[in-house]
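Minutes, project check-in
Item: structure for the 339-residue chain
Input as provided by the requester:
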Amino acid sequence: MPTPFQQRTLAFQSKERNVFFHILTACNLSCRHCYINPEQHGSITLPEETIVSWLKLFAAPDKKTNLILLGGEPTLHPALPTAITKARELGYQSITVDTNGYLHHNLLDKIHPTDAVLSFSLDGPCSEVNDPLRGPGVFKTCTENLAKAVALGFEVSVIYTVSALNITHLAAMPKLLKTLGVSHFFIQVIGLRGKSAGLTDRANPPLQISPEQWLDTVPQVAHAAAELGLHVIFPKVFLNPDEPFECAGLVAENFFIFPNGRVYCCPLCEDYPIHSYQIENNTLCLRSGLIEKNFFPISIPEGCIMNKLLQPGSLQYDENGHPCHRISCCLLKQEMARA
């Protein structure tokens, strides 16, 4: 008998906020699809006191606030354990560290398994697939450190960024993750940001996949992973005809913070100086002029206005000029898990 499982769209919650905090932009790897854009995001490593000040700035004890600590590679920052401890004191309900798996500064020895979830980036079920994307030896190091974290009692998840270079290998991931003791599996669509936005010449064919490839592959793999007991989350991407479009920038609180003080509400906008807020003197200031927030209320047949403006090549139209698919907000997720 098939394993019963639940599938649902994770609707935006107005009283929940997500804080994506890049505490530095430096990284020990050079992944082909890295979204960090030094020209827009800078090369600053925030001092410990600034990290603490900005954590206070976004703390909201009256709301469920989820904190995701990012880089670059956040474990390169020696103050990461302090940031995690301080975030707990400030009332952040959920703390996640997104890591490439190298776990610098002996992180596992400096925090307790109940302090944070560790989310490892892995883009292939073996070194032959993962390492051409992320670097030589990365698969071995990442999986070994992931296994150490599981053995110590940490809750671990894996992020797999689907691209034209690894989508045919996605189906092999659930079995690997089950073996490694992973609890959550996040399937992520390649974004046209940072490095991947410029990989369009013959030597570097586009990394983006077609709607057909996504729809024919990702839901089925998510189903298989859920049947193995994994909690799976992946972008909605395409709306059904009867589903309304909602923009997270209008109905939820999401802040994408960079060390140069830029704060975005939409990750699609991060390659452009149209951020909604700027942190000045430890104060969150709403910017004037041409900013992303001005565009969120615009309703179009294609769905997401920012996708239409910034990634028009991702859209397809029929012979009458109507969009073949409506694109959901990039922050709208699907969830599959055992019932």
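Outcome recorded: The chain is about 25% helix and 20% strand.
No further action items on this chain.
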